[in-house]
Specification:
Number of helices: 15
Strand content: 5-15%
Distance between the termini: 50 Å
Oligomer: single chain
Helix content: 40-55%
Number of strands: 10
Largest sheet: 6 strands, mixed
């Protein structure tokens, strides 16, 4: 169990190790894929941790499982509540199903169809809301009042952050001598866990967060030294539209070396290239660090680079290169 101080502030490396033990029977140890052709393009050895092949189709199951299985039995019986743009919602629904407790899930009505269907498939009690954070939060508050359940935040929760960090813990066990690790950043739960895990293994590892130009609150926050909010959510990377919290911003300032941003065109190009090169489906959100490498946004020449490929839940009826032929 985490200490009171850890819950109030942030998880540490010991919490990530504990999470790895807690969730080991409930998540996949996902594969690491490499491509000589991709390495030649970027001038580095790149190792892709394929969480798109994870249960529920994304890394989010790690944090959800850790949070749900951290609850004591009497608390768990009342169920769990969350709101999400999609992947976290499906992950919490599956984790709750596995523990045999109810899950009350709020999803914006503009979420990708594949993610909404996943919540239903895993037995979550779905409530659709208007597609704004305020609407999702208000709907979740009403469910908390009516059910007495426990709220599991998509990223601003030490149990969730610790669970997400287990992906990097696995990667560093699978591949030795890593110099750099990249992960997408939205609310910062994944990147926080990634950075804590990386520096728990080796303080010499450089960690970068990657985000869209159209949802660049982390980059602006790093530049100003103050917590900034997104002024736009227009990015195609639907999983990266949230803003950092005070907790995650504090962790990132301590452990992350920098934030790089990429354009919508670069995201779509990287997503399509990954599909074609690796024969694996990835979401626009996971294509963001791929795009950062392809566009040489950071210096990684000659390095061993790890990339967290975060999810593969894509609406196949609305592929970006089919909607907008100008990006082909």
């Amino acid at each position: 169990m985490m200490s009171t101080t850890a819950v109030a502030i942030a998880p540490d490396f010991a919490d990530i190790l504990a999470a790895a033990n807690r969730i080991s029977e409930h998540v996949h140890r996902t594969a690491v894929h490499v491509s000589r052709s991709f390495n030649d393009l970027v001038g580095a050895e790149v190792f892709f941790k394929c969480e798109n092949l994870q249960r529920a189709g994304s890394f989010k199951i790690r944090g959800a499982m850790n949070a749900v299985f951290s609850l004591d039995d009497s608390t768990a019986r009342r169920g769990v509540v969350t709101h999400s743009s999609g992947n976290h919602a499906a992950a919490v629904a599956l984790a709750a199903h596995e523990r045999g407790i109810p899950a009350y899930i709020v999803v914006g009505n503009n979420a990708p169809r594949a993610k909404i269907e996943a919540v239903r498939r895993y037995g979550g009690q779905l409530t659709l809301s208007e597609p704004t954070l305020a609407a999702r939060e208000e709907t979740a508050r009403r469910l908390l009042d009516s059910t007495g359940g426990t709220f599991i935040h998509p990223f601003d929760d030490p149990r969730v952050i610790a669970g997400q960090g287990t992906a990097t813990l696995e990667l560093l066990d699978q591949i030795s001598g890593m110099d750099v690790i990249l992960a997408p950043v939205s609310g910062g739960g994944l990147l926080s866990g990634t950075a804590i895990a990386a520096h728990g293994v080796s303080s010499a590892i450089t960690v970068y967060g990657c985000e869209p130009d159209l949802a660049n609150d982390a980059a602006r926050s790093f530049a100003s030294g103050n917590l900034e909010k997104n002024v736009s959510q227009a990015t195609i990377a639907d999983g990266l539209r949230a803003s950092l919290s005070e907790r995650t911003f504090g962790i990132l300032r301590q452990h992350v070396n920098g934030i790089v941003t990429v354009s919508e065109e670069e995201i779509i190009h990287a997503m399509r290239m990954f599909w074609e090169l690796f024969k694996l489906i990835i979401e626009p959100s996971c294509a963001v660090p791929v795009a950062a490498l392809l566009s040489r946004r950071m210096e990684v020449a000659g390095c061993r680079v790890g990339v967290i490929i975060t999810g593969g839940n894509v609406d196949l009826h609305a592929l970006p290169w089919l909607r907008n032929s100008s990006t082909l």
